[in-house]
Amino acid sequence: MNELQGFGFVVPHWAYWGWLAIMPLTYMYWLNRKESKKKAEPTTPDEELALDILAEEDPVLHTEGNRLTRIIDKISDYSGVFIALWTVNAVVAYFYEVVMRYVFNMPTIWVHEASFLLFGMQYLMTGAYALLHGAHVRVDILYVKLPPRGRVGMDIFTSVFFFIFAIALMGTSWVFFTSSYGMNETTLETWGIQYWPVKLLMFTGAVLITLAGLSKLIKDIMLFRLMGEGNKQ
Fold this sequence. Notes:
Elements: H1 13-36, H2 45-57, H3 67-84, H4 86-102, H5 111-125, H6 127-132, H7 148-182, H8 196-232
Helix pairs in contact: 3-8, 4-5, 5-8, 7-8
């Protein structure tokens, strides 16, 4: 990065991408080891109330499903935690920028760009986690008036539109990625970091949310049949 001499400390591109990959994995490994050494804490009354409310809004949230759905749900859950830890990097980077700019009068050329790319990638990658935990916005004018089985049935019906969107997102994001990688696309700012990893994560996020939607559909169908059998008895 000789062309960036005179700008003060500049994070190399390889260090930026490498840190985003290694930092969350390291923390998650440490956290899992720490939690394995202590017993699981009991759920508090407030947490139980929140879970009950979520279950009432979307009954499938607490359905175990089958082996396939459990695998997909774990992937969705871990990917969400992984991406959430990137926020720590943005906080630290902006703190560094403020100190360098207002204390040492040496503003950076990379912090703002690194952070908005970070937030963009987070937005793309957290859809599966949000779907798993019922965090997506639902237009519930009719939905909340339906009985529990009707809500599950409505989710099964509307999954058609979800998969149309998800498959279209996968296709277009893959085209964006291959085009960006082929031309070695970089940002127009002085830092000039590669764009293709961002577009690769766009495709990855599309794959993850499609898998999460498949898991939800399977659990919806299982729960719909189970509720139907219960009504017959």
